[in-house]
Amino acid sequence: PPPPPPPPPPPPPPPPPPPPPPPPPPPPPLPIMGKVTIKRTESISCGHRLHSPHLSIEENKEVYGKCNWEGGHGHNYRITVSVRGEVDPRTGMVMNLVDLKKYIMESIVTPLDHRNIDRDVEFFKTCPSTAENLSIYCWNQLSSIMAQPELLYEVLIEETDKNVVYYRG
User: Fold this and answer.
1) Across residues 6-31, what is the average pLDDT?
2) Distance CA 160, CA 163 (A)
């Protein structure tokens, strides 16, 4: 008898699977529009006497009342500093809060905390140590050391729970 026919050749291997599709491109960044305000609050305790060198003794007593007492009085102030600007797309921040804290500590807390500001701070030797003038003092001190003083937006002084001053340069 004739030899059996050769077996059929094996089927070709299946083709390799197609490569996975490339990942989709990242979405475009969200447009950053408008300005963002960030705030940092610190507390200080200091004493003062409301007294103006531009008024007579009687006028001082009349204008400032019990706050003109010669021995002075003190407050536990809360000072909130606001900076405002565009968010940096690289960092996601208007300003690094670590830097803002450093500026506040150096220019406000260190020179004022646990001091008699009328005697210990040159600025208040010639002007009354009102909350209004304290806010201006804080603004001037901050803007003199900040790397970007144009970001400074507001200084808020809470002298008491009921007495609050805002200063916006």
Assistant:
1) 83
2) 5
- Residue 3 is predicted with a pLDDT of 85
Alpha carbon separation from 23 to 16, 26, 27, 134 (Å, rounded): 20, 9, 12, 57
- CA–CA separation, 145 and 139 (whole Å): 10
d(CA 122, CA 120): 7
- Strands of 164-167's sheet in order across: 115-116, 36-48, 73-85, 152-158, 164-167
Distance CA 129, CA 134 (A): 6
Comparing CA positions, the residue from 106, 39, 51 lying closest to residue 78 is 39
- Contact criterion met (CB below 8 Å) for 40 and 101: yes
| 8 pLDDT above the threshold of 70 | yes
Catalytic residues: 67, 114, 159
